[in-house]
Write a structure and sequence with these properties.
single chain; rod-shaped; seven-stranded mixed beta sheet; nine-stranded mixed beta sheet; about 0% helix; mainly beta
Length: about 600
């Protein structure tokens, strides 16, 4: 049955879109002087003799000719001659099955698709076809344009022709994944290619002249590869993700890169061991890469297929991506290529903190214990632990134990431990846990101090304890004593006045402060000379005289005693530092006299 089709509007390929054809991995080549004029196919090592292109609407072919084929054939479009391509579709290089012929000979010039159903001499490109399946008018389905070469010294020309791809598949029964081999040439006939007064490209027999295998889109078959990766660029190889993270897929298959002007697409199917199924479209990463990528979110929850999300509900579900490789390098068709990925359920991380003791004197040592718990069914991957110490508290170097023994990085009050730690998943009713401890010195200011800690990781949001682990700091006194004499030297029989200035520099009161001094050698204590006064006093202005006898007291805060050569002052309470010198109950003076012997 002969079918005739009108032209369908479609632009011709640009020069960069034409796909060169190969023989043995090299451009198709033909001797440049084996025919005359526009019947002569020409080439050189850098310029292919034949090309192909397929945009899904038309299949296109191109030959490089020695001269312009435009002429006065049947309708005057081309010279009265034929040019064409014989197509092997049965993987047998001894014959061909189809001929796509540019017919400039017949009264009505056409591009015809002809069937060679009865095979003749083995390897003979001159085997004539038996029937025509379909034709299109040559007027709108060919073009002649100057080529980029002048191989034999004059301008070369491209003869381009095309044929509706849907008709091509309908007639031949081929698919997008069928492997093809092509044999080009010119001919004085309309139903075969022959050397008689013409030119066969590359060889005079099919076996030696067929091109390397190509797809129906002109690309050379390659074996595809699919894998899970880390991003849309296709970086790295990923084997595990946590539900909630994005899944990325990469396919490499160069034979799908048939148009270097646009990005091609392909599809893959993702299935899980839990029963979810998703079909995903991948887009080429560039216009001429042959690498395709896409992403799809994952989720921990009920499964609904074909909703654009990979959903899992059981621990460690496996997702399989399947790419059907239409035609691989070994000419096998529709081969499944797969990769697998484990989807972990997300962890449920909490962080708490305890402290011992819960009360301490200023400057005392406290131990903080951090507990990280996981009540989820996926492991938690910890990368950083950050602790903010209360004001005035300081880390004690070398005291970290448990999950890590490393000292933290310290920035002010912020302690940071960085590493890679795994918190086990929940098992039965038991949560996974990990702990570590460290010590600090408490501050010097009394009060109740809270601490907070946070943990972060690769598969969960940052978790913060909030203010926790309160420590009550009771302030301690810090006493300062300064002794002085009223003169630098004295003669025998003269008296010296010694004063002792005391001050509490701490933030807590001092109780029962005992100041003990010794009567210097070669002097004798002057009986009844003990006195006390405020910080601004002198011996003469000190307002309290103290008794010398043990156990004797006078009303007030200070008592005195002389025991042998020891001078003893007892101060009941010294108040915390009030921050003002020479005033207040946080400081004062005591006095005694001696006589030089």
């Amino acid at each position: 049955m002969l079918l005739c089709f009108p032209a369908i509007a479609s632009a011709w390929p640009t020069d960069s879109q034409w796909i060169p054809l190969y023989k043995g991995g090299n451009y198709l080549q033909d001797p440049n002087g084996d025919a005359q004029g526009s019947r002569n196919v020409v080439s050189d090592p850098n310029n292919d003799a034949a090309f192909m292109y397929n945009n899904g609407q038309y299949v296109y072919f191109r030959l490089r000719l020695d001269q312009d084929p435009t002429g006065t054939g049947g309708q005057g479009f081309l010279k009265s001659f034929g040019w064409g391509v014989e197509i092997d579709t049965n993987l047998n290089s001894g014959d061909y099955e189809w001929l796509l012929m540019v017919d400039g000979i017949s009264k009505t010039e056409v591009v015809s698709l002809q069937h060679n159903s009865v095979q003749g001499t083995l390897g003979d490109p001159g085997d004539q076809t038996e029937s025509v399946c379909a034709t299109v008018p040559i007027s709108t389905n060919h073009q002649v344009i100057p080529a980029n070469t002048s191989i034999n010294g004059d301008q070369d020309y491209y003869l381009d022709w095309r044929f509706p791809y849907s008709t091509f598949k309908q007639c031949t029964g081929l698919t997008d994944t069928s492997p093809l081999r092509l044999f080009f040439g010119s001919s004085p006939s309309t139903n075969n290619l022959t050397e008689a007064g013409a030119d066969l490209l590359g060889a005079s027999d099919l076996i030696a002249g067929f091109s390397d295998y190509v797809t129906a889109y002109g690309t050379r078959p390659t074996t595809g590869l699919v894998k899970f990766v880390a991003d849309l660029l296709g970086s790295n190889d990923v084997t595990v993700v946590t539900a909630g993270q994005t899944i990325y897929i990469r396919v490499e298959d160069a034979d799908l890169n048939y148009n270097n002007a646009v990005r091609q697409t392909l599809t893959v199917v993702l299935t899980t061991t839990g029963g979810d199924s998703e079909t995903l479209t991948l887009t080429e990463t560039g216009v001429d890469t042959g690498i395709f990528s896409a992403s799809i979110p994952s989720f921990n929850g009920p499964r609904t297929s074909a909703n654009g999300t990979v959903e899992v509900s059981a621990p460690d579900e496996i997702v399989t991506v399947t790419y059907i490789d239409g035609l691989d390098a070994t000419l096998k068709q529709n081969q499944p290529r797969t990769d697998t990925l484990t989807i972990l359920l997300p962890p449920a991380i909490t962080v708490t903190k305890a402290v011992t003791p819960i009360a301490t004197a200023a400057g005392g040592t406290v131990t903080y214990t951090i507990t990280i718990s996981n009540s989820g069914f996926g492991e938690g991957f910890i990368t950083q632990i950050t602790d903010v110490l209360p004001a005035g508290f300081t880390y004690r170097t070398g005291t970290t134990t448990g999950l890590t023994t490393n000292n933290p990085t310290i920035n002010g009050q912020v302690l940071t431990w960085t590493g890679a730690w795994t918190i086990p998943r929940k098992t039965g009713v038991a949560n996974g846990t990990a702990t570590f401890s460290f010590q600090t010195n408490a501050g010097s200011v009394a009060g109740t101090y809270y601490n907070n800690v946070s943990v972060s990781g690769s598969n969960f949001a940052v978790k913060i304890s909030g203010d926790t682990a309160p420590v009550m700091v009771t302030a301690a006194p810090l006493m300062s004593l300064i002794k002085s004499a009223d003169k630098a030297g004295a003669k025998p029989g003269e008296e010296l006045i010694y004063s002792i200035y005391y001050r509490n520099l701490g933030h807590g009161p001092a109780h029962t402060l005992i100041i003990m001094d010794t009567v210097p050698m070669n002097t004798a204590y002057v009986a009844g000379s003990l006195k006390s006064g405020n910080a601004a006093s002198t011996y003469d202005t000190a307002d309290t005289s103290l008794t010398d006898g043990p156990g004797e007291t006078v009303p007030g805060n200070v008592s005195g005693e002389v025991s042998g050569s020891n001078i003893i002052f007892t101060i009941n309470v010294v108040s915390p530092n009030d921050g003002v010198a020479n005033s207040g109950a946080d400081e004062g003076k005591v006095y005694f006299k001696v006589k030089v012997n």
